[in-house]
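Q: Predict the assembly, please.
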Amino acid sequence: MTTSAPRIRAARIEAPPGKTRRGWTGGDDSRLAFLFVLPAAIGLLAFYFWPLLRGMWLSFTSWDLLSAAEFIGFDNYTRMFADPVFWNAIRVTLVFVVLNIGIQTVVALTLAVLMQRLTQSTLVRSLILTPYLVSNVVAALVFFWILDFQLGIGNQVLEWMGLDRIGFFTSESWAILTVALVNVWRHMGYTALLIFAGLQAIPSNLYEAARVDGASEVRMFSSITMPLLRPILGLVLIISVIGSFQVFDTISVTTGGGPINATRVLQVYIYDNAFAQFDFGYASALSVAMLAILMIVTFIQYRITRAGQTDLN
Amino acid sequence: MTQLSQSSRTVADDPTPGPAPSTRTRPRIRWGKIIAWIVMVVLLVITIFPFYWMLRTSLSSNSALAANASSLLPVDFSWGGFQRVFGLQSIDDAIADGGSGAQLDFWRYLVNSVVVATGITVCQVFFSAMAAYAFSRLRWRGRNLVFGAFLLSLMVPVIFTLLPNFLLIKELGLIDTLLGIMLPSLFMAPFAIFFLRQFFLNVPIEVEEAALVDGASKVRVFFNVIVPMSVAPIATISILTYMTAWNDYFWPLMVSYTDESRVMTVALGSFAAQSPQGGPDWAGLMAATLVAATPMVILFACFAQKIVNSIGFSGIK
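A: Predicted assembly structure:
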């Protein structure tokens, strides 16, 4: 920066005034750049940074939107740490994330490997992406119907197989698994395509060499595919875990957090506090907790999976 | 297959006992293949079946659905579900048919969704492209610093900005308006800026310089050189943006209160909640989900190849 600045100034003195305005000689485009970045910068400041600061500040206040916000120090936080529903929400969220991501990753990895081994067809790839095209709301409602206790085809099938009907969305022990599976259904194809892209990047001569040495498919998967896939798998995991922590839509339109608190994840609890209790201060404190959890999780994951590095070279 | 025969040849050339492993490998791989195909087909059926079930249910009538829940074909075929969704059925008929009788004007929600998704896509992609150009091709002081600030915004989880953004929209008096739903997404999306910047960097500098030598301004270079040469990535990011905007639920749920600004996803959520006595109007609900899902599926069908292939390099959104 310090070295280039004088050079630009020197060029400006030497060049005739008409030419610098065009700027292609390597001059300074500050004025134009300002105009080009301005709209995006407004968006960044007004809808990313300002709400970030404001959210932090709100978490130290008591505010019902009607009267003025009142500064109450750490009261929201002491209340939060003593709130059993908050700790339950953390537990439910973690259970959801583990179920969601665990199943989703296994299924998506299976799909990706199968696609790589069996078919490269665009049709298959388009089909598995279809659930990702519909909204969470649509996915949730379809399964709400398929898994309905009385009329759902899912429960009909269970009955044919001689099993008892299951209240997928109404039983306290099943609801969270059901919601997790709905999310798996919507995201597995998309995740599989991301992993598939990572698989394509593994040089095929590695497999050929292993085959020449007589390695089995299982052996090739564990010694070539998995280690070389680690960086992309790590990246995919980080993205899906962050998304998974913020689950809201699926639960909001089906169970609404119930039965009792069985699916009241943190996000739903935040919404309840803000829009049912009009307690924006407390809802903001809960959001700060969410932000902290997300940052810690991302950091740990990044360290474990070493997503930034590659073993390819 | 060629690799297989190759490997058996190498094994055969080897003086140590060879043919035995290769004969054992062949049938095992074939069995493995059959199992693999079965797993694949099962996963595909799980993926597709719910869509079929939506269609089958939406074309059935509610009373027949209760009596015959497991028929694979529509039971007592009827357009009633779709008629209720679009308000084409009289209220008495709708109630008799298992509907709630509440007036739901899905045309309106459809139009609202189209306006919101189109507005967001056009503005967001355009402004993001402008910023991406400034970050990739213009020279100015503090470029890296400002770009770093945008990088940071990628790490702010959406949830954290929702409540304060709701307050801001409220203070601007835009609650329950389509503009209020659109505003936070109109100016940019960090991901769109990074995505487009990456492509703009790849436009050969010679092309740009040639245009500048010919006397074009940098503004013209942007509109006449950079944008036309990046049609494919701009189309990809536009489709992704459109899908995200169309499928969004949480934010519109916060902002919209009446039909004035209700979009499809929010309408679906409230449709599900308005169960008449005697169970929800499943035929109507499935017809409504189908109406909400179809535009995205059509959009995707038109651009399937492009989207599927772009997921590889664009990475993750």
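The domain at 106-273 of chain B is CATH 1.10.3720.10 (MetI-like fold). The mean pLDDT of chain B is 80.
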